[in-house]
Write a structure and sequence with these properties.
The protein is of the alpha+beta class. The protein has one domain. Helices cover 13% and strands 29% of the residues. The protein has 1 helix and 4 strands, in the order αββββ. Strands 1-2-3-4 form a 4-stranded antiparallel sheet, with no helix packed on it. The chain starts with a helix and ends in an 11-residue tail after the last strand. The relative contact order is 0.18.
């Protein structure tokens, strides 16, 4: 989904959170779920943060792990992941 489409959807129902309280649109403008990044059979999440970094949250059996910074900058102008 394009960023503008998400913003329009968020404004229509008052939702300003992607998936949980810590993944707000202002903190993480783009999110993309992937079936399996590290071949452990658990989905992961790619994200951009407000500073323009590309992050990878590898899924785990009980939740997301800490973010790994894949690229520290340059992602603030990207409109879509995936």
């Amino acid at each position: 989904m394009h960023r503008r489409d998400r913003q329009d959807a968020a404004q229509s129902d008052g939702d300003d959170t992607h998936a949980c309280g810590s993944f707000t649109y202002s903190a993480y403008p783009l999110l993309y779920g992937t079936p399996d990044v590290n071949h452990d059979g658990v989905p992961g999440i790619w994200a951009t943060d407000a500073a323009g970094a590309l992050l990878l949250y590898q899924g785990g059996a009980t939740g997301l792990g800490s973010a790994a910074t894949v690229s520290g900058s340059g992602w603030s102008t990207v409109r879509q992941l995936g």
